[in-house]
Amino acid sequence: MKSPIQILIVDDHPFIIEAYKNAINKYGQKGFDFVVTQANNCKSGYENIIDATKKFDIAFFDISMPEYAEKGIYSGEDLAMLMKTEMPECKVILLTMHTELLKINNIIKNINPSGLIIKNDLTFDELLFAFDKIINDESYYSQTVIKLVGQAQYNNIELDVFDKQILFHLSKGVKTKDLPTYIPLSLSAIEKRKLNIREILEVAGGTDVDLIREAKNKGVI
């Protein structure tokens, strides 16, 4: 990897950013030179990624952060996918509190990050170990991720980007009849997708509130 290594950290928790930087500085004692850029929400993360003057080698994204709805960026997952498009050679590491298998499977399938870490697994030594793996062109998944992907309960469940948009806007209080304003689908197509989502998430009846609750329980939104 070229020197200096350009690193982007996007997280809305200052203490997490400091932990990253401390680990990077510690690793820097091995002779590597790092330049760290930090951002604390989806908006500032987005602006750094699309900045034509910047080229990142490694990027850390927290999954849950203040959104940037104007650009359709609602989470660290969206930033990671944008980074994959803008800088496909950049190694992406995602951190999350989510421990739902469906959520983890979706992240791996849609983003295929170089690193995926459950925050409860995170220690300073673990971060150093993960960083060493990434620097040496290996992937790193924390122990909880490894245990989850070994399960099979939701392996065949798939929700695409439109399904997730439907759930997201419903969770924000948008009525089904108004969803075509936010999503480029007809009302009938949206209603069919809602029925399919209910089947996938095993919510046979109930209200949209019940659907959103189960989607959150399973880590879809």
Description:
This protein has two domains: 5-149, Rossmann fold; 161-217, Arc Repressor Mutant, subunit A (Orthogonal Bundle). 45% of the residues lie in helices and 13% in strands. The protein contains nine helices and six strands; from the N terminus they run E-H-E-H-E-H-E-H-E-H-E-H-H-H-H. It has helices at residues 14-27, 42-50, 76-86, 101-111, 124-135, 143-149, 161-171, 187-200, 208-217; strands at 5-10, 34-39, 58-62, 91-96, 115-118, 140-141. A six-stranded parallel β-sheet has the order 2-1-3-4-5-6, with helices on both faces. Helix 4 links the parallel strand 4 and strand 5 (115-118). The mean pLDDT is 88.
Topology:
Blueprint: E1 5-10, H1 14-27, E2 34-39, H2 42-50, E3 58-62, H3 76-86, E4 91-96, H4 101-111, E5 115-118, H5 124-135, E6 140-141, H6 143-149, H7 161-171, H8 187-200, H9 208-217
Parallel strand pairs: 1-2, 1-3, 3-4, 4-5, 5-6
Helix pairs in contact: 1-5, 2-3, 7-9
InterPro entries: CheY-like_superfamily, Sig_transdc_resp-reg_receiver
Modified residues (4-aspartylphosphate): 62
Keywords: Phosphoprotein
